[in-house]
Amino acid sequence: MSTGLDAIQEMLPRLSPGEKAQLMRWIARDLGGNVPGIDKTPGVCGGEARVVRTRIPIWILEQARRLGVTETALLASYPTLRAEDLGNAWSYARLNAAEIDRAIAENEE
Questions:
Q1: Calpha distance 65→5 (Å, rounded)
Q2: Is pLDDT of 23 > 90?
Q3: d(Cα 104, Cα 106) in Å, to the nearest integer?
Q4: CA 9 to CA 31: how far, in whole Å?
Q5: DSSP notation for 73-102
Q6: Which long-range contacts (CB under 8 A, 24 or more apart) does 54-58 make?
Q7: CATH topology classification for 38-108
Q8: Three-state secondary-structure class, residue 33
Q9: CA distances for 25 relative to 32, 35, 73, 74, angstroms
Q10: Burial letters for 18-45: b for 16+ Cβ neighbours within 10 Å, e otherwise?
Q11: pTM higher than 0.85 for the full model?
Q12: H-only helix segments in 1-109
């Protein structure tokens, strides 16, 4: 059974570079403020934004970074994390600063 993704994959090589760029703009607009690799799931980590495939909330990573923990140390402390995950986490934290600040404050109480 073919899915929409199968159809897109089949069509992609036939698109011009301009058409591919337009497709990317449409997808980015459809995603809104979402950051790849970051997910929110009710009932997982209290619904907080987290790195996909993990139960590591973004606010924990951002708080560690604010406290001076290096990316190398974070990757060593969380073996399931990849460098790409940290880049996604920093993007999410930057785009959602108020949400992250609130989560940090709530968890420091």
A1: 37
A2: no
A3: 6
A4: 19
A5: HHHHH-TT--HHHHHHHHHHHHHTHHHHHH
A6: 54/78, 54/80, 54/81, 54/85, 56/80, 56/81, 57/103, 58/89, 58/92, 58/93, 58/96, 58/100, 58/103
A7: Arc Repressor Mutant, subunit A (1.10.10)
A8: coil
A9: 11, 14, 35, 32
A10: eeeeeeeeeeeeeeeeebebbeeeeeeb
A11: no
A12: 4-11, 17-31, 58-66, 71-77, 83-95, 97-108
Q: Return the exposure string of 91-105: e unless at least 16 CB atoms fall within 10 Å of the residue's CB, then b.
A: ebbeebeebbeebbe
Tokens 């609130």, residue located: 102
How far apart, in Å, are the Cα atoms of 63 and each of 14, 30, 58, 92, 101? 45, 30, 9, 13, 9
pLDDT greater than 60 at residue 1: no
pLDDT band at 5 (very low <50, low <70, confident <90, very high): confident
Tallying the residues shown for the chain, one arrives at 109
Q: Would you kindly state where each structural domain of the chain is located, as residue ranges?
A: 1-32, 38-108
Question: Is 53:80 a contact under the CB 8 Å cutoff?
Answer: yes
Token pair of 102 as six digits: 């609130």
